[in-house]
C-alpha cells in the first residue's frame, strides 16, 4: 500500500510542485503556503491550475510570485471556477468607471472580494457609491473591501464607538472617505486611540475626523513614543505645541532627523526606545 500511495503521489502531486518550481516559487514559500492551504493540490494541473495561473497573470499583468501570493489569500483563483465568479464582478466595476489598473491591483492584493455572490457584490458596490466614493479613485475599492469584510452588526457597533466620542453621521462619512480602513480597527483599538488623542494629547475629537489616518498608527510603536519625545522638547522650550498631526504622519527617518537628531544631549533616543518597548 505505501508503494501504491507513493506512486500516486509521484503522478499527481509531484508535477504540481514542479510547475510551481518552474515559475520561480521558492521551495520554502511553497511548503509554507501549501501546508496551510493545500486546496490547489486537489485541482487538475492541465485543466485548472496551469490555465487559471496564466489567465490570472495575463489579466493582472503581475509576476509569477504575485499570482502565488494571491492564491495564498484565495485558493479559488487557481480553480476553473474563478473566471466565471470573478468576471461579472469585474465587469460591474468597469461599468461604473473603476479603472482596470485599480481592479488589477485589488485583485492581486485582495482577491477574496471578487468571489462574492454577484447580487451581494452589486449591493455592496451601491453602498460604497451612496457613501460618496468616486469610482475613479483608489479608495473606492478599499471601501468596498471594508464593507465586504464587515457585517452590519459590527459596522453599527464601531460606528457607535465613534459617535460616543461626539462624531455625527456626517463626521463619520468624512473620516471614512479619507481613511476607510478605520473601520477595520477593533472597537478596543478605536477606544484606546481616541482616549489618548482626546484625554492625553488634548486634541478635539473633531480634529481626528479630518485626519483619520492617525487611527491607523500603532499606539505603542508610534503614537506614544513620538508624543513623549515632543513633550520633552515642549517642556524645554525647543518647539511650539504642534497644531497638526504632522509629527505622527511623517516617516520614521524624517521624525528622527527633525525631532531627535538636533537634540542629542537630551538622550531622546533612549526615551523613544523605552516607550516603544512598553
From TrEMBL:
What Gene Ontology molecular-function terms does this entry list? nucleic acid binding
Which GO biological-process labels does this protein carry? DNA-templated transcription termination
Which keywords accompany this UniProt record? Transcription, Transcription regulation, Transcription termination, Transit peptide
Q: Which Pfam families match?
A: mTERF (PF02536)
Presence of the UniProt keyword Cell inner membrane in the record: no
Q: Which InterPro entries match?
A: MTERF, MTERF_sf
Give the superkingdom in one word: Eukaryota
Matching SMART domains: Mterf
The similarity annotation says: Belongs to the mTERF family.
Q: What is this protein called?
A: Mitochodrial transcription termination factor-related protein
Organism this protein belongs to: Corchorus olitorius
